[in-house]
Amino acid sequence: MAASSMKDIKLRIKSVESTMQITKAMELVASSKVRKAKQHAERTRPYFTTLYETLSDIVETNREFTSVYVKDQPVNKLCYVIIAGDRGLAGGYNTNLFKAMEEHRRGRDCVALPIGKKAVEYCQRNQIPMLTQEYDLVEDVSLGDCSAMAELLCKAFREDEFDELNMAYTNFVSMLTQQPGVMKLLPLHYEGQPQGGQKPEPVTLFEPSGAEVFNAIVPGYVTGLLYGALAESEASEQSARRAAMDAASKNAGEMIETLSLHYNRARQAAITQEITEIVAGAEN
């Protein structure tokens, strides 16, 4: 009986050790990828920051400015760009993102453009109409793909297919902190207008007009936001996966220690039983 118990414990220890090797390998891979993803995220931020400043300058310095991208209308239908992961084993990375989106959505009618396998599965599971399922692998999405998505989204917005465009993604704060949230992309609104309704004289001359330049820049601005959010999400996913695999490796180590203790106790009990049987046989 003791021998059978010892064999089961030994098999269990080997199984946990094999799992621990996998989690440690995944942790090393995630640690390697997160450094590259972090650098990528930091390099993309100045691009769309400059675009935003340019758009703001056009709005604030043009006296007769009108654009479909700054229209103020009731919001009846939403559109979400959802950037999730291609796989699991990343702690609450995907789940927390979907919770943030649901909290923002609050049951309102919407369509979605999912990026990543988990985002596509989420839309299918919740029966959310999708503009396209073409971008089901995050790691394959390029800057050109972001430009194509931006053109698709801006065209749909101009044609009133939805009233507000939002982006659900996870912002990379640090190696230990990732913040899921929803960012509004369209329509654009600007604060800090001069008092009295007077706008300053334009410093930059836009040709053929500020409005036309503005409308031409907006798709590029959305492209920059999408690309930047992809970089932030990639860094966040790898950080979350590294932390999850590190915790799994530690749990496996603790489990091996506990199983080893049980194994030693069972082995000692078996030795004691054999000695007792030998002594009892010698006395007879």
Protein architecture, described:
The chain is built from five helices and four strands, in the order αβαβααββα. Helix 1 runs antiparallel to helix 5 (210-283) and helix 4 packs across helix 5. It is elongated and about 110 Å long. It has helices spanning 2-61, 93-105, 117-125, 143-158, 210-283; strands at residues 78-83, 110-115, 164-172, 178-186. The longest helix is centred in the last third of the chain and has 74 residues, at 210-283. Helix content is 61%, strand content 11%. The protein has a four-stranded mixed sheet with strand order 2-1-3-4, sandwiched between helices. With 284 residues, the protein is α/β, with parallel strands linked by helices. The two termini are 24 Å apart.
Secondary structure: elements and pairs:
Layout: H1 2-61, E1 78-83, H2 93-105, E2 110-115, H3 117-125, H4 143-158, E3 164-172, E4 178-186, H5 210-283
Parallel strand pairs: 1-2, 1-3
Antiparallel strand pairs: 3-4
Helix pairs in contact: 1-5, 4-5
Structural class designation: alpha/beta
Task: Note the beta-strand portion.
Answer: 5-15%
The major β-sheet equals:
4 strands, mixed
Shape: elongated
What's the average pLDDT? 81
Distance between the termini: 24 Å
Strand ordering within the main sheet = 2-1-3-4
Tell me the Rg in angstroms: 28 Å
Give the topology string: H per helix, E per strand.
Answer: HEHEHHEEH
Number of helices: 5
Number of strands: 4
Low-pLDDT residue intervals, each spanning 5 or more residues: 192-197
- Helix content range: 55-70%
